[in-house]
Amino acid sequence: MLRHLSAIAAATIVLLLSATAQAQVETVVVTAERAAEDASDIFIIKRADHVIISVTVSCDTRDADQRKREMKETLHNMLRAAAATATLSLGVGDKTVGKLTEADFDDIMGADTRPDTSRATIIIKTTVSPTDTINAAVARLNDFVKGITKVGRTEIYRGGDWQLTLIAPEQYRDAILAKIVDDAKRAAALFGAGYGVSMDGLEHAVSWYQKGPLDLALYIPYSMKVAPLAK
User: Fold this and answer.
1) How many domains does the chain have?
2) Residues contacting residue 34 through CB under 8 Å, at least 6 positions apart
């Protein structure tokens, strides 16, 4: 059963929860899976950290050793080209994206559905600036793919639409909790002396939904009740 708390006590508990929350340094792919059925009215707006696309690097050279060499050289070209830019990088992963390195090449290369064909799926990321537009970000990604020097019979195919990423969503917990505290104080004050608030769900992870082409609304799913303080 929830305890009825004064606004000040509620604020104290919220801040304690905030102090114990540990942000994980990971790049999370923003997908519809965590969209807003449980969205709260209390949120902060955060610009996405990256726009990303997934591409498949494929090669159908008959000789297996030559096919592997051609794919690896193409992947090297992609790494070098990305490193020469200020905003582009390569990654691997599905729900979270890790950095692609040369050491990953053998792990990500595998057999395709066609005979004598191999493929590797990688993520291309572009950093989102404060003045960016989605069209500009997607254009950088498309231009990068078009400009890659492909070796032998290697081809690069884009898969699916662009997506957004967010680095370490839990780092924004304190800012969200501070807004929840302020809202709880206002709610209790409206009812006057003798009333307090109770809250449930503050332990939930930070969630989000898309608020604009490059903007995300970050929130914590929770519920709040205003009731007379126990005597």
Assistant:
1) 2
2) 207, 208, 209
